Amino acid sequence: MRTIFLSTILLMLAGIAAADANALAAVNAERSAKGRAALVYDDRLEAAALAHARDMAARNFMSHTGSDGSTLAKRLKRAGYKYCFGAENIAVGQPNLSRAMVAWMNSSGHRKNILSRKAEAMGFARAQGNRWVMVFGAQC
């Protein structure tokens, strides 16, 4: 029983890692098409994204302001990410990453974040109810 449980956990984590790689590849494909440098993946940015995605899912809302009044700046600080640049894309309802990317690329503000020359890294999360969060950053 324990082996099955651990195998399930490992498969879930592998799925999360695959989703992260897919998100990074999708963002970098858009950036490459516009002559932008590729981003790297950052676990601290992912932690900020995941905390916000889970907060929105648990409380059934969509906003760049957390249920505790937190801003992206506060969430980045909580995640231990010291930054000179930070940006956040959120979406809800898209059934997969491809659809979320289409929605973001069709929105001038979200597209600007994805293509920002200031961004050096990103993190990504998806929570229950198809709540999507991408966080972009650059350290000082």
Question: What labels would you give this structure?
Answer:
5 helices; 4-stranded mixed beta sheet; alpha+beta; globular; 52% helix; 140 residues
Describe the 3D structure.
Helix 2 crosses helix 3 (72-78). This protein has helices spanning 2-33, 43-59, 72-78, 97-105, 108-115; strands at residues 40-41, 85-92, 121-127, 131-138. It is 52% helix and 18% strand. A hairpin with a 3-residue loop joins strand 3 and strand 4 (131-138). It has 5 helices and 4 strands, in the order H-E-H-H-E-H-H-E-E. The chain starts with a helix and ends with a strand. A 4-stranded mixed beta sheet has the order 1-3-4-2, with helices on both faces. Residues 1-16 have low confidence and may be disordered. By secondary structure, it is an alpha+beta fold.
Q: Cα-atom Rg, whole angstroms?
A: 15 Å
Total of DSSP H or I helical runs spanning 4+ residues: 5
What do the pLDDT scores average to?
A: 89
Indicate the overall shape.
globular
Number of strands: 4
Name the helicity range.
Answer: 40-55%
Distance between the termini: 47 Å
Order of helices and strands: HEHHEHHEE
Main beta sheet, described?
A: 4 strands, mixed
Strand content: 15-25%
Low-pLDDT residue intervals, each spanning 5 or more residues:
1-16
Class inferred from helices and paired strands = alpha+beta
Order of strands, main sheet, comes to 1-3-4-2
